[in-house]
Amino acid sequence: MSNNHTSSSEPTKKKRRRSRSRMFWIIFQIVFVLGLMGAAVAGGIVTGYVAALVKDEPVRSKEELENKIFTNYLTGFAYYNDGSLIGQLRAEEGDRRLVKKADVSPYLINAIIATEDKTYYHHSGVSLQSTMRGAIQEITNQPVVTGGSTITQQLVKNTILSAEVSHTRKAREIFTAIRIERMFSKDQILEAYMNEIYFGKNANGSNVYGVQAAAKGIFGKDVKELGLAEGSYLAGMIQNPGAYSPFRAESYQRGKERQKMVLDRMLENGYITQTQYDGAIAGDLKAQLAKPTQQAYREVPFLMMEIEDRAARQLVDADLLEKGRDKSTIGRNEYRQLVEEKRRDILRKGYKIHTTIDKSVYDIMQAVATDPKNFGKNRTYTIRRSNGKTEKIENALEEVGAMLIHNKTGAILGMIGGRDFTVEQTNHATVPRQPGSAMKPLAAYAPAFELGLLQPASPIDDAPVLLADGQNGSHLPKNWNNKWQGMMSAREALRMSWNIPAIKTYLKVGIPTALEYVKKMGITTLVDADNYAATGVIGGLTYGTTVEEITNAYGTFANHGSFVDAYLIDRIEDSTGKVIYRHETKPVQVYSEQTAYLITDMMRSVVNNGTGTHIRKYVPRKVDVAGKTGTTNNSNDLYFVGYTPELSMGVWVGFDEPYPMPDADKYVPMVVWGKVMKDVIAKHPNLSAPDSSFKKPAGIVSATVDSKSGLLPSELSKEAGHLITDIFNSKFVPKKVDDTHQKARVITYNGERYLAKEGTPEDFVTEGVFYRSPDPLPTKEQIQAKNSRVSTQPPDWEQRLPDKEDPRTEAGGAPSSPSGVTATGSGKQITLSWQSAKEPDLVGYRIYRADMQNGFVKVATVKDPAELTFADTTAIHRDLGYYVTSVDIAGHESQPSAIASVGSTQTWQLPDPNQGTETGIPNPMDNNGNGQTDPGGTATDPTDGSGGTNTNTDSASLPAAPKSLSIKNTPNGWQLKWKGSSSSEQMYNVYFSPDSASGYLLLGTVSSTSFTHAAEVPNGSNYYITAVNSYGESPHSNIVTANTSE
């Protein structure tokens, strides 16, 4: 039975097993299908979520990605003209220097890969393992030991995406990283990453980006020179640069711990051996750290800021030219925006800017600028703003701006922006200030020479002139000494910087024409309003000029009339070394060589014996220099601009808030100029040779002309001694003979000079050769209405031919006698005074004197009836008697006045009027002025100087003859020196004769006691000097002879 049971149960068991297996399979299939369906649903959800996160992320082209990751914010550099480094340009982020992967130390590369992305060369931009690890660390709040981002992802985060922390940014990061990996090689991506990494601060405290900047800034060496210890330390800093900085003890210790972790990774991954590991761990990196270095923006801030600005402008101008756009049609705001965009490029694209600056020259200039002994003391003062409010300026520096330019090329070799950048950041070499008289050669004399209107010997009348003034009707300009100098040569006018001749020349040329020449010489600050101001030539411009531009303009004269625009930027290279800008010199001929030489020769006179002589304290006379001073009316601005044949330099000195400079500091611009140029010439003879000179071109000749008309001398010119010899452009030597001189008899009445009537007595008349004024002078009333403190007449007034005859008419009969005559002795003179006779036709008075031994003798003639005093300085006795007579224009003389006595109680007896001429009483009908006298007396010649002193007398105080005249042959010509009076009213005539047989010619009239004759003269030529004042001309000095064989 049992067997049957067993047998029957087997199929049943098998059937049950099959049934369970089938059920499991069915369930598995159902679960598998459901799993697949769940996975699909989950995947769809994930895919949809990711798609939603990146839907707004643009699909960037390869070019865009390349620009983003390979050229982002590189450090630029500026260089001196010899290629040496000035310094790095300011970077918006910090120091970043481009480097190729091949130039990076393999220790650093391996350290970065081992630490940041050990599977870098095996993934496609994203590491699933790293991403999962990062996600787990985030979910579980575990500390982050290694990040979840690959090197490619980090590059995307640093260069393309924002720094936000979100799933959206992470998704976009992964999406972009995968795209980058498809477009660029692994080595390209790694190179971009290494150029982008932030490494914290360098030894100077500046931010550093990229492995090259980090190696230089932290260890002081190129990245390819890094060893294992240095490379592993830098790789460790990437995670947290501030926390691992080696420049602080605390962070350095943390950095060493981080370095050990990096070395552990390198050892684990087979990049280094145990021996290398041990050596790197044991090394002390502190001794290898970079030392702080000088930073260009701290050491030469004015220069670096100027380089930035100019480089940006040059790039903008080059772009406009390339696009065919006219710069003058671009609005100021648009241009500024374009410049600012280029400035940003300069600061972040790794440009290399090569300048024209000579480091040695620049250092010389800074040494002078920073030495306080070269300047006046700081000042505190109060100014009034345009709104009427006052403001106190405290402890203000005397500021300085200077520019030194190579004449031939226009290269700016050096500059002074100011004395202290920390006090004032304005670059005083490039901001406009009023140039004062430094404008005279540019706007007056050079254009006049070029147009043939003047030459150095041409006369200009330094006399009162009224200029139109829109606000006040008219304006009376004045000179810096508040006096008129009379007729003078153009050379003399420029030498002593007289304002009136410059203004007259400016008007003669025509202001618009003159300013067109100025613009051709590179002055860009002029505006339309300047075309209407006659005082622009003496510095009264709307905005003034910059030191750079006026220096550049003066270089035109040194450069034979050719203007070469000054430049600072020689060339600009991009980060790859490609030249994107190169300066091109384009000379423009503004003046002829002859005009340039004539102006230069005149400005030699300024430097050698004019207003610019102070520079000779520093620059020896063997150095050929021409230049001009410039001072504004209130001395708010002081200039000196000068040049040698090779170099031009301009200097401005003043306060930032305009305020009058002290008189004691008026030479400061020349001190700065002289000290800089002295050192430059001494240390760089290749730039400006001490023995070089301005070469005289063909077409320059010497000629003698009439000093009052500028025409060829006439016989009357010679008789009057009005001759002057100077150099000319041969095209403009005059051909016409002078016709301005005339013989005449002249009298003075009410302070005015007239042609005398035929019957006027000779002793009241000045007879001689006179010249006609080139222009009528304003009346006394017109002058005094504008300025009551200046003279109404030039000092050579008495040499000029009156244009009107004496307006008085004869009243008939003898005039009445003067009344109230008194005589007072004081010191060595006796002063007479009296009351005028009443007749309107009086021509003047005669003075008679008697002593104890002699009867009355005429001792003087007072030629102006308005003069009612006389000082007798020739009396040798103290017992004297005087009387005075009145004389009219027809020669009728009055009876004697009452006698006035001095030193005696004696009663003086007047001669008997009935005795006529035999008794010494004047004959009223005798109009010859001889004053027939008592037989015991002696007639006095009114011109022999034996009388007294009076403004209008024959015995007036003529100046004494100059003494101790000496002569010396100098590189600049024959130098004459003498001793003269200290009187400010006195001038000196310089006479020249080429040989002993010829007559003497007047070379010129000067106010100083020296004169340089800049001409080649025959051996044996003679010179003498006379002094001149309002009374006349002195006897001549001793004669000196030019010996050319010495």
TrEMBL record:
Low complexity: compositionally biased ranges: 933-966
GO molecular function: penicillin binding; peptidoglycan glycosyltransferase activity; serine-type D-Ala-D-Ala carboxypeptidase activity
InterPro entries, A to Z: Beta-lactam/transpept-like, FN3_dom, FN3_sf, Glyco_trans_51, Glycosyltr_51/Transpeptidase, Ig-like_fold, Lysozyme-like_dom_sf, PBP_transglycosylase
Catalysed reaction equations from the record: [GlcNAc-(1->4)-Mur2Ac(oyl-L-Ala-gamma-D-Glu-L-Lys-D-Ala-D-Ala)](n)-di-trans,octa-cis-undecaprenyl diphosphate + beta-D-GlcNAc-(1->4)-Mur2Ac(oyl-L-Ala-gamma-D-Glu-L-Lys-D-Ala-D-Ala)-di-trans,octa-cis-undecaprenyl diphosphate = [GlcNAc-(1->4)-Mur2Ac(oyl-L-Ala-gamma-D-Glu-L-Lys-D-Ala-D-Ala)](n+1)-di-trans,octa-cis-undecaprenyl diphosphate + di-trans,octa-cis-undecaprenyl diphosphate + H(+); Preferential cleavage: (Ac)2-L-Lys-D-Ala-|-D-Ala. Also transpeptidation of peptidyl-alanyl moieties that are N-acyl substituents of D-alanine
UniProt lineage: Bacteria, Bacillati, Bacillota, Bacilli, Bacillales
Bias (Polar residues): 781-794, 816-827, 899-932
Glycosyl transferase family domain ranges (all copies): 83-266
Keywords annotated in UniProt: Carboxypeptidase, Cell shape, Cell wall biogenesis/degradation, Glycosyltransferase, Hydrolase, Membrane, Multifunctional enzyme, Peptidoglycan synthesis, Protease, Transferase, Transmembrane, Transmembrane helix
Protein name per the record: Penicillin binding protein
